[in-house]
Amino acid sequence: MATRTLAFFAILSTALALVPAGAHLLELPNKMAMTAENYFVAQSIYRAWAFLGILQLLALILNAALAIAARDQREPMVFALAAALGMIGSFVVFFVFTFPTNQATTNWTVVPDNWEALRAQWEYSHAFNALIILAVLCSSIRAGLALRG
């Protein structure tokens, strides 16, 4: 029963982590067409979104815990481990591609000459992360469904 409860919270935290990532993915076409002035205004809405990283960290921890709790059941353990590794992958994408653009633009308050390249890097890294987190959610759900007993 405790493992099923853990699976529920792993799935829930992963689904909640997908919400802001999915928003980034869906807004991408419109934001790529914006002028610098409009884009930088739009970027200002994300100032408090750093706290949403807690959802990704929670999803990582809970999926890893599920993998450990289900270690005697191969299928759910493998899917939970894949989910945890996927969340690690999303952090790698963020720190390699997204975070540097935030630094280069002082969190999108300074317009550098290469702002369009930085915008593309920021937008596409977020879009890729949305796809990663969707895959993580599928893996987490599969782990929960595969649990026995």
Please write out the topology.
Layout: H1 2-32, H2 36-43, H3 53-69, H4 74-104, H5 115-146
Helix pairs in contact: 1-3, 1-5, 3-4, 4-5
Question: How is this structure best described in words?
Answer:
The chain has 149 residues and is mostly helical. It has one domain. It is 80% helix and 0% strand. It has five helices and no strands. The protein has helices at 2-32, 36-43, 53-69, 74-104, 115-146. Helix 1 runs antiparallel to helix 5 (115-146), helix 3 (53-69) packs antiparallel against helix 4 (74-104) and helix 4 packs antiparallel against helix 5 (115-146). The longest helix is centred in the C-terminal third of the chain and has 32 residues, at 115-146. The chain starts with a helix and ends with a helix.
Category by helix and strand content:
mainly alpha
Basic shape: elongated
Straight-line N-to-C gap:
8 Å
**Given the structure, what is the number of helices?**
5
User: Are there runs of 5+ residues with pLDDT below 50, and where?
Assistant: none
* Helical residue percent band: over 70%
Biggest sheet features: none
Features:
149 residues; mainly alpha
Short description:
The protein is mostly helical and 149 residues long. It contains five helices and no strands.
